[in-house]
Amino acid sequence: MEHQDTIAQEQWQSFREEDIFRELKTSAKGLSQDEAKNRIAFYGENKLPESKKVSLLQIILHQLLNPLIFILVAAAVASVAIGEGKDAIFIFLVIFINSALGTYQEFNAEKSASSLQKLMKIKARVRRDSKETELPSEQLVPGDVVLLESGMKVPADMRLLEVSELEVDESFLTGESIAAKKQVAILKESLGVAERTNMAFAGATVMKGRGVGIVVCTGIDTQVGKISQDVTESVSAKPPLVQRMEKFIKQISIFIIALSIILGIVLRMQGMDFTAIFFFVVALSVSAIPEGLPVALTVALSIATTRMAKRNVIVRKLTSVESLGSCTVIASDKTGTLTVNEQTAKIIQLPNNSQYTIEGQGYNGEGKVIDSQGKSIEVSENDAIAKIARIAVFANEGSLTKENEKWFYHGDAMDVALLGMSYKLGIDPEKWLTEEKPIGKIPYESERKFSASFCNENNSIFINMKGAVETILDFCTSVCLNGQIKEIDKNKILGDAEHLAKGGYRVLAFASGECKSYQKKEIYENDAIPALTFYGLVGFIDPLRHEAKISVEQCRGAGIKVIMITGDHPETAGTIARELGIADESTQVVTGQMFAQAGAYDSPAFEKLVASTAVFARVSPTQKLEIVDVLIRRGEFVAVTGDGVNDAPALKRANIGVAMGSGTDVAKEVGSMIVVDDNFSSIVAGVEEGRFAFDNVRKVIYLLIATGAGLIILILLSVLAGLPLPLLAVQLLWLNLVTNGIQDVALAFEGGEQGAMKRPPRKPSEKIFNTLMINQTIVSGATMGFITFGLWYYLNTYTQMDETYARNLILLLMVLMQNFHVFNARSERVSAFKVPLKKNIILAFGVLAAQGIHIISMQIPFMQNILRIEPVTYKEWLYVVALAIPMILVMEVFKYLRRKKT
Ligand code: ADP
Ligand code: MG
């Protein structure tokens, strides 16, 4: 492999197949594992250089460019100027701690963004040593044989050897917005990327069809690798809520600074001396700016994402953490989400009305097929069953094999289930497929609803086809009844299918026919399909997820409507929807055909259909998008699930796109969250966590803003009353950043409140600063401000107490009020005494730590010196505690009155 440099420049599109194999020392069987290992050592991993990270320095700078820091630096400089060097040291310490905390948070957020990227890593299907396996795409090397399927990302640059309707979206390379149709014919040299139609390029998306290709370039040698230097961009990992808060804080900062300057001028005119004014302005600004907020918010949101991850929901776009709570409609898939997607073929029904039961469960070949007399049957004894088994094996893209007593499978659930059925009939499908390789295939796509293959049988070409009953019947002109070809009665067959579907079976029809003339094609139009003979139906059972039923119930309580959108038969859909409680007896199932008759999707008739039901069946991917669109237009906030390529537009359009963990790369790329276990219940858990998260964000904001309001009221009242400043700048910093800072971060760990899924969804337009927030902030802030002012006034007017000692008491009272207020902030609705402490042990420690740190600081000379504090007597402490108690009482009354009102 001396030609690593030239390999990237080869004109692969102009090579013959044999030449590619020779050049890359490989074959259609793929490389051997050993050879692949050698090559990876030589070529390196198939990956692009990591995108540039935000540097630590940038993060630190970002932390420092903040109005609070400017104010603090000014205060520190002024302190030095008036000879209070220790204040300056303290202020710089605060700046340091604050920035370090913020930096740490921001850094963590960047890190968690890159762990998400890991989850998005793509897998490739590779043939090595003649066996197909799944590998992380990094491990691909030139010469590997790779299989492509709709929904996948192309993992490396490759030359295509086989294609079947392959269409690839390579717009990021070519700018061409429609998917490129691929083919395998040899092309001339020196063609542009867009013209190399027999190649697929790394990073492109397979929109349709299947293909097999041979890897020619990996990593930075690929086309995308060559341009990757330009496209590596860093994405901001900051949640939008935090960004909005930071902006909000900047705005209040500017407002407060402006206000303080005006007040300062007024005070100056009243004759106050300049340094006093300066410290007053600083004090006011420091109290009003909720410096601890971005950190606490980031903590709250990152806790929410961690909790969601524990419940199998991975958030891709942080907006969905905050918006999940507003979800009013969940539009769910049926297969895999509401059911476990473990299809098992259960019943074979022939046109002569004989039925055969298939035993067993799951993806294996264990069980028997028995007739109505209870006798087990084998293919060799029953021609009709043998024909269905043939179709099942040949119109199949899956694999099911047994090795060392263990079953391995890959592919579509229906296909694997049919292979299971064939084992149960005594067939070895692997053997059949190697002896009689199909010469052409029509892959399954959900718009088409069938799959087929062409096989050579006794010197003529037969097509074997399986798929949705209506679709298959469209091709059929005859039926095989007791071994004879007869005229077909389609209504009878549709009736049989409907009967099975009513029983909750998913039904596939089986047909076959001889092709008069056959030509291998990359794309088979319907006219390549001859008239077919219908052979029978197979019914599949896909067990329901029992948790889904509970979750549907939970959604009802939470004011969320659950609807099912499926490509399956209306009767199957209806039966399952009723079993899950999504629909009841009176619910009519709306089908894709009804939509087609209703007209354009913005017509009133279409909208009426959408509004009329909760179950949509035989819906095409386009109609799914239209349903979502109509719902959103009707003012709903819609979460939509999806897994296929065709779901991508609907996922994008949805307010919250929910991609399935087992879904295609494309779906995961556009979804705003990924449900790892595909389970409907996890989506509902995500909604619940979303509501918790939003509640916690409100709590965290409330605690800090209320304290800020209290401090402003105290300072303004004191100035108005002609009293000295009740708290010094360092003391205010201490309150805001240290004691309350600890508590606020601890509050972010608050568990969810009980009733979260019992109330209706929050309106997406509802602001965090709604009437409730403003009212509770004013009431609690006023309580705090007036009580502390009362004490300050009393101590200054009626006692001879030294000013510094009085401040010592005021500071202690403030800390205690904050301690109490945390408990108010734990719930906006329920009494503080009704929120169990064990739900947030961290908070209990946080409150003890805040109070503890303050008490300890009162004993330590160094801290005494900086904060101008000293120990208080036991009695004084109790008095101050008593003064702080109204903090709880007032808010209890507030909550009580509010509960009574609603
Ligand atoms: P769902 O919404 O339940 O996921 P799909 O769009 O996957 O529905 O399937 C729609 C219909 O297409 C099914 O009812 C079935 O008749 C048919 N079908 C599904 N999978 C296959 C397959 N692998 N081969 C042939 N037909 C299929
Ligand atoms: Mg499906």
- Name the CATH class of the largest domain: Mainly Alpha
* CATH architecture field of the largest domain: Up-down Bundle
Per DSSP, what share of the residues sits in E-state strands of 2 or more residues?
15-25%
Low-confidence segments, ≥5 residues, pLDDT <50? 231-236
Class of secondary structure makeup = alpha+beta
Name every ligand kind in the structure: adenosine-5'-diphosphate, magnesium ion
How many beta-strand runs?
Answer: 27
The tally of helices reads 32
Radius of gyration: 35 Å
Sheet with most strands: 10 strands, mixed
Terminal CA distance reads 77 Å
Write out the CATH superfamily name of the largest domain.
Calcium-transporting ATPase, transmembrane domain
Description:
The chain is an alpha+beta fold and 902 residues long. It has 4 domains: 9-50 and 115-233, Calcium-transporting ATPase, cytoplasmic transduction domain A (Distorted Sandwich), CATH 2.70.150; 267-307 and 688-901, Calcium-transporting ATPase, transmembrane domain, CATH 1.20.1110; 318-339 and 546-678, Rossmann fold; 344-541, 3-Layer(aba) Sandwich (Calcium-transporting ATPase, cytoplasmic domain N), CATH 3.40.1110. 49% of the residues lie in helices and 16% in strands. The chain is built from 32 helices and 27 strands. Strands 10, 11, 12, 15, 16, 17, 18, 19, 20 and 21 form a 10-stranded mixed sheet that branches. The chain has an 8-stranded mixed sheet with strand order 8-27-26-25-9-22-24-23, with helices on both faces. Strands 1, 2, 3, 4, 5, 6 and 7 form a 7-stranded antiparallel sheet that branches. A hairpin with a 2-residue loop joins strand 1 (123-128) and strand 2 (131-136). Helix 10 (274-288) packs antiparallel against helix 25. The longest helix has 41 residues, at 680-720. It is elongated and about 115 Å long. The N and C termini lie far apart (77 Å). The chain binds adenosine-5'-diphosphate (ADP) and magnesium ion (MG). Adenosine-5'-diphosphate is lined by residues 333-335, 412, 414-415, 444, 446, 449-451, 466-468, 506, 508, 566-569.
